[in-house]
Amino acid sequence: MTQLTMGKALGAGLRRAMADDDRVIVMGEDVGKLGGVFRITDGLQTEFGAMRVIDTPLAESGIMGTAVGLAFRGYRPVVEIQFDGFVYPAFDQIVCQVAKLHYRTRGNVTMPITIRIPWAGGVGAAEHHSESPEAYFVHTSGLRVVAVSNPQDAYVMLRQAIACDDPVVFFEPKRLYHSKGEVDLDGDIADAAPMGVARVVREGSDVTLLTYGAQVSTALDAALAAEDDGISIEVVDLRSISPVDYTTVTASVRKTGRVVVTHEAAREAGVGAELIASITEKCFHYLESAPVRVTGHDIPYPPAKLEKHHLPDLDRILDAVDRVLDRPNSLSGVQL
Amino acid sequence: MTQLTMGKALGAGLRRAMADDDRVIVMGEDVGKLGGVFRITDGLQTEFGAMRVIDTPLAESGIMGTAVGLAFRGYRPVVEIQFDGFVYPAFDQIVCQVAKLHYRTRGNVTMPITIRIPWAGGVGAAEHHSESPEAYFVHTSGLRVVAVSNPQDAYVMLRQAIACDDPVVFFEPKRLYHSKGEVDLDGDIADAAPMGVARVVREGSDVTLLTYGAQVSTALDAALAAEDDGISIEVVDLRSISPVDYTTVTASVRKTGRVVVTHEAAREAGVGAELIASITEKCFHYLESAPVRVTGHDIPYPPAKLEKHHLPDLDRILDAVDRVLDRPNSLSGVQL
Amino acid sequence: MTHTLNPSVETSTDLDDLARLLTPDGRRISDRQLDPWIEDLDREALRGLYRDMALLRRLDAEGVALQRQGQLGLWAPAQGQEAVQIGTARACRADDFLFPSYRELGVQLVRGAKPADFILAWRGEMHSTYNPYELNTATPQIIIGAQTLHAVGYAMGVQRDGTDQVAVAYFGDGATSQGDVNEAMVFASSFRSPVVFVCSNNQWAISEPVTVQAKYPIAGRAPGFGIPSLRVDGNDVLACLAAMRWALDHARTGKGPVFIEAVTYRMGPHTTSDDPTRYRSADEVEAWRRKDPLTRLEALLRSQDAFDDAFAADVQADADRFTAGMREAALTAVTRPAIEVLDDVYAEPHTGLDEQRTRFAAYLSGFEGEGDAS
Amino acid sequence: MTHTLNPSVETSTDLDDLARLLTPDGRRISDRQLDPWIEDLDREALRGLYRDMALLRRLDAEGVALQRQGQLGLWAPAQGQEAVQIGTARACRADDFLFPSYRELGVQLVRGAKPADFILAWRGEMHSTYNPYELNTATPQIIIGAQTLHAVGYAMGVQRDGTDQVAVAYFGDGATSQGDVNEAMVFASSFRSPVVFVCSNNQWAISEPVTVQAKYPIAGRAPGFGIPSLRVDGNDVLACLAAMRWALDHARTGKGPVFIEAVTYRMGPHTTSDDPTRYRSADEVEAWRRKDPLTRLEALLRSQDAFDDAFAADVQADADRFTAGMREAALTAVTRPAIEVLDDVYAEPHTGLDEQRTRFAAYLSGFEGEGDAS
Ligand SMILES: Cc1ncc(C[n+]2csc(CCOP(=O)(O)OP(=O)(O)O)c2C)c(N)n1
Ligand SMILES: Cc1ncc(C[n+]2csc(CCOP(=O)(O)OP(=O)(O)O)c2C)c(N)n1
Ligand SMILES: [Mg+2]
Ligand SMILES: [Mg+2]
């Protein structure tokens, strides 16, 4: 085991994937000499050359569209979108081409493209640099969507995503790039848990708290705080947000009977909505109270100084926990 | 009252809005001489001239981005996206500009842009011509999203959307363009129900069936069929899918205690997910069974000959009604 | 390019400033730069080009007819564009990879598409028919311009393989306005990728004349991106073939991308759903009919005594066989069972979709025997 | 443009092929076409240009300093680009509408932005500060290239109003690769809209040299779209002013859009988060320092005895006042209360957000007195 930041773990995952398979190509803005604005691809161009680590022109649709062409030719492009808010110019290529080509060609053409997206807020950034666009991709049939929450998953799941014959949108919480953890650099990805599997990161019996990405650590903090109040929270790191591992999720919900979902993205038609709708359907008779969402507000991402009021934090999660437990909470007595 | 097809009603609404306010500009591909591929803008260029009815170059981002500029200059652009599947190249301008500019400028700049989208399937079309992308816009804070289901609403809601100072994504079910209905051409839009209000199109007591767009008539058919079985279905035409009129929706659910939601779009993180999550939260103690979704599958839109297996139809809705009523249905006994 | 305050920008498309080898009345004229590229063309080769074009015209007419008869959902006619489609596609090597748009029926034909391939997609049975890797030709693209980037990416892959295939991006005049097409030129230029852009400027994008997209010859745009371009008579199959051979050679030998604007005309409606009388004059169409690609090649062949009744009958028989195959494919088409709408979404197992399959199968089983839902 | 097999496409940017009025060492040279546009410039006007550029340089340095001190989240330095920003913005009329990118601090300054305007957005207090309609200048755009379409749309609006304002689109060399920028040229050309494109080619897009975006001078791209273009020394404020006046006049008098490529250099890092030593040499930066826009104008002024200690002191005092205002704005900034994150999403009442406001207000009220959550 090696102690690595998530950023370094991602870089190591890329390096390993490139070494294992010479059809793996890294491409994006500034991924070469600079090593990406977050230095995730640092050193890769020196090691693998400019033919495999491509500084592209500044055009996201161009990046995605040429990645499709490379995939047509049998390559496995790993595309870096510089920031979450810059994925939209590539949306058409992602939705109409990347997601649909396998279906369109009845399986003749595969699109093993990994779309890496430095993701979400909490880093005091300028507008468009803190977005949580995952629901757009979750709603897009033909894509797989994962989000990592720790260096070990970052290292393994990135390699699994690259090895997957389907397109994978791979969300990397920017705010965790510098957080450290133990990474097993030698393991085989086939031996690790598949990227589609959720993980119970803390067991509990009163409430199931579902989340993914950087919110996992906030959720763990909340669970710890709740313990003092005698509340036992089970925290599930979804890891894959499309498809969701409902085997793990429903097992937890059937045990606790109470659900809180938290994510940074806006609430309306977000991932939380899907989770609650599916859970309600699958576990209706186990539910003892209405599942509650703790999410970003339905607003454009606010200026940096105000983002702390937008992002779900420990207090808001605990308030929601009180709600699902029918304890006094901020909405007690509020007529909606 | 005048008998009009929905297509003609939309045209009449546009004509009226242009006559009422000379800042209203119609723009898009083929909207001029041709009158649009669906003839919705037929005659408008002859009547209002090429300065107000603009045949644009073939570039959706360009159309949307120049509409933003026109709005900056005080115009009220009504943009036609030729087909649902061609809105994605404009996604960046919609998400990052149209939806965010009012927030970004703290209210100094308004974006009274109406984005008309001929929408959804059931017309035997080629790939990309039958998409239901509404959830993408519902998830995008800063936009309003409406869907019409009959000529009268088409006429009134289009004018309301154009008069609204916020951007409105306006979905027009292609399959209803030729369906007829009575339209009051003289009414004042201020006297009509606001576009944000849902309508109970059929009262019932056993099940609430929520839908919008072309599915409204399928839902009514289902309600009629269910009646023979002694089941009383209340059908709600949401009309506005963002924001949803939860006053109307929750009143119905509290009455019936059982909910089916139906839409053509894919299920995962779709509008139905949001509806069920919100309803569960707002009406948990009234629910007698798990709300059920009847939606398109989580697949790219299939080839025309197979679309009938993708689109929710009467049988699939009735099957879901059986489910929420805990009657025998297709999933009885299926372990999931 | 130097700095200037008064660049000489043309403001109209001069339709006669074209590279050409065959006049509208069928005379072979010389073009110093193009001539060398078709020196090898003998009588049989010329007859082969005619045969292809005639077959394309017939299959196109058959498609329109089948659509009218309710056998197809839609058809996008290629009539008038036979020369550019056949000429450029014939210039390609079998291992070059072509990315056509929905209208490039002739490209698919040359690449080996079978009668059924022209039927099953437009009929709505499947989104695509042939396996792209068997014809080295992508499924025709419907999203305007998107395929140009795929071609560039494919060409970037060829560069990485160190081989000498060329990727070809086909698109229309309207497509040149799309961001994607311009980004494709940027990427191709920056990476000097072996790709040929073939723009069939058929004067119309549905109801919009090319002047809505460009107030100047389209071929003039590529050099600004560092890409050599050529404006060719798109109704002259010899010029199209020669230009494409030059372009492919340029790309194949590491000199980078090339842009060809083939000036042609969409004789028919945009699609069978379109009514072009709403936006263009019969005179315009008539004027273009006099530039027909088939009649001019026929005239050349006749002048060489290479076109006689036997040849005409043979071509006709070929076409009859092909169109009979199309009709047959339409009439015998079997729509796939309902459950298959869920096939091929993912290449690997997917828990979400697998669950939906279980549910849908359970649902469908309720109809068994009814023969309706499958 | 005619058809050609061998277009003369330059494959490198010849940095010396530029319109110029002031040499790097401060000599005024003549350019037949540009000269007439600055005939009116007297001593005071020249000193005014210097004053603006010096102020811009100071405020830029202050921004960097404040960021280092933790007062700002980020800063995108304009150092080196003073001439193009000041020269082009000074050429505009107050009622022209400008669409800058994040780096055009000088444009905002000329348009009347106050010290606080440079602070509050980069500090993260608000996405934008001034009311765009008060300065006739849009909020600086962060999405690369998006604003070019806004400028064209605005110009289309001007055409509909029948008035004579011009819209100006500012963007960088990297932006030229974006689809949006190319679509903006298409629309502007097709509609002959009164818009001026100002591309500040500062040689870098973060770590990517301009050669990744273009293998040829950027100004060469516009003529292909039917748009006259001009390549100007972007470190020469006189040339920038003159070129922009010409361009504005062209657009204002109904002759359509114009494209200006100003060749300049980003002396600093991309932003305060960037480390340019990772990708470019100190020599390159040094070479550009010798082309500094301020020193060359100072040399010209000195040669005209128009630059003395008193003037220098006065400029300095101006800058001191301005930067003091910036510091003041940073130190006195009050973050808005939590509930305001929900303000201004919609222009009209919105039931969904109103409900969220009720909930959030209820939630926040639980912290009242704690002084933390608001
Ligand atoms: C992104 C996108 N926008 C709009 C359309 C609708 N559409 C289909 S064909 C067409 C015109 C295309 O014109 P052109 O590129 O000249 O090709 P042609 O049809 O003339 O062969 C349009 C607007 C589309 N298919 N894709
Ligand atoms: C759509 C989009 N993609 C990527 C970025 C990230 N980004 C910010 S600035 C920049 C480089 C811009 O270069 P250029 O256009 O030359 O302007 P400059 O920074 O040199 O002024 C990039 C890639 C962005 N802001 N928007
Ligand atoms: Mg065309
Ligand atoms: Mg730059």
From TrEMBL, chains A, B:
Alphabetical list of InterPro entries matching this protein: THDP-binding (IPR029061), Transketo_C/PFOR_II (IPR009014), Transketolase-like_Pyr-bd (IPR005475), Transketolase_C (IPR033248)
Keyword presence, RNA-binding: no
Cofactor: thiamine diphosphate
GO molecular function: magnesium ion binding; pyruvate dehydrogenase (acetyl-transferring) activity
Keywords: Oxidoreductase, Pyruvate, Thiamine pyrophosphate
Keyword set includes Oxidoreductase: yes
Catalytic class of the enzyme: oxidoreductase
EC number: 1.2.4.1
Domain Transketolase-like pyrimidine-binding: 4-179
UniProt-recorded name of the protein: Pyruvate dehydrogenase E1 component subunit beta
Organism name: uncultured Microbacterium sp
Gene for this chain: pdhB
